[in-house]
Amino acid sequence: MHLEPLISPKRVNLRDRDARRPAELRDDDLKDRTEKLTDRLRDLQRAFYADGRRALLVVLQGRDAAGKDGAIRKVFGACNPQGCQVTSFKQPTPLELRHDFLWRVHAAMPPHGMIGLFNRSHYEDVLVVRVNDLVPKRVWSKRYDQINDFERMLTQNGVVILKFFLHVSRDEQRLRLIERLEDPEKNWKFNAGDLDDRARWKEYTAAYTDAIRKCSTKWAPWYVVPADSNRVRDHLVADVVVRTLEKLNPIYPSADPSVLELASTIV
Amino acid sequence: MHLEPLISPKRVNLRDRDARRPAELRDDDLKDRTEKLTDRLRDLQRAFYADGRRALLVVLQGRDAAGKDGAIRKVFGACNPQGCQVTSFKQPTPLELRHDFLWRVHAAMPPHGMIGLFNRSHYEDVLVVRVNDLVPKRVWSKRYDQINDFERMLTQNGVVILKFFLHVSRDEQRLRLIERLEDPEKNWKFNAGDLDDRARWKEYTAAYTDAIRKCSTKWAPWYVVPADSNRVRDHLVADVVVRTLEKLNPIYPSADPSVLELASTIV
Hints:
The structure is a homodimer. Chain A has 12 helices and 5 strands. Chain A has helices spanning 30-51, 68-76, 94-97, 103-107, 128-131, 137-140, 143-156, 170-182, 193-199, 201-215, 230-248, 257-260, and strands at 55-62, 84-88, 115-119, 159-167, 222-226.
């Protein structure tokens, strides 16, 4: 099973049942198949870095405990850290708030040859900002077009963009939040605000739906990942990334012929 | 065998024979032992990230083909990319040249919780800069003290610093440069300047020796890694990093008791 990019017609379903493990991915060897994909990713990334003509930007969005950190660790843990940079967008600093919302995002863009992972992103500016009325509607409502324009500019300048919404159901989130609270290696991450967001489940669903509908473009499509199962999540994300890199067909640049002649001169 | 930090007395040997595989590390299972260390590194890094009270800065220096890229891939490939950032310092840009030499280095410092890897570093400003007379001696000769002061300030503010000189012999470098030229996945990296540096082998040896002697401090020691064997290099670097993190004994912060009580409220 491959995830298809959501382009037009802009059908998007964020119903709870769409977060479940798809029937096609019930097999026991899913983990092994994902490992083959991440092995392939390791090789592709090496060539992608050498090729250096494009950057790959992977945007990860999702509710609390949807598995953004896990996807980074499990899928991109295979990458050479020299070719892969992660930016976690937290609550903006006072300086960042004095800039337009794309300023800090633009600054964090991966250069050509690199894979950049965004753990949350500029989409928070039409999600948490919208749900909590942090700016007026007349401000955030213009951002969908602004984002599309920005992302178009990026792709026209060599950045390949993949956007993943890790879709977790309300029940699964409950289990994960409780598990997180009970695990001394995880409960330090917990903050009471996570529960406020959970209380606004429907508002967030509406905001995510709009973000995905309005900003799933040919040049920067959204993928909705059923993420109630971590293994399914890792598999589907790895699969999209690998297929994208394969299509880009990165090649090792050829050396200058004059350089090749140097071999005989090394004493 | 563990590498010892070079502090005072500042004996440092960069003779070719010190680059060879040490007798203690001739065993066949070295790769397995290194893998155990990198597994341990993975766990420690997770806790180090959670702990968030310190940053770890790992400086990698060495001649061309000494194995800086390889050490990053093999040792730190085990890390979660979210907790590990790599900065490669290339020839300074015009803007960087209009700043003091520590400016771009300071900006790239890992924040608390992160492991930062420097592929080359501010030491280039007493290495390539000195050997090629890019600034007058009265300028570069003051930099050793400036570096020591800067690194002291960093360590007093929560950055733990490890500096590795990957020591490769002249013969081994020759083999690697030729191999690089013959490998179509590697020869694109080659530039003729690498050979100019090789032609100045002795001047570089003197410059490295001074950098290590003058800047191996209690707070930021240098480690000289015999790097003619990649496996030895990976093993010794991993060993120092793991022992350093173990000594720091990172702990998962405990959650606020009021947060723990929230579990029963999640519906």
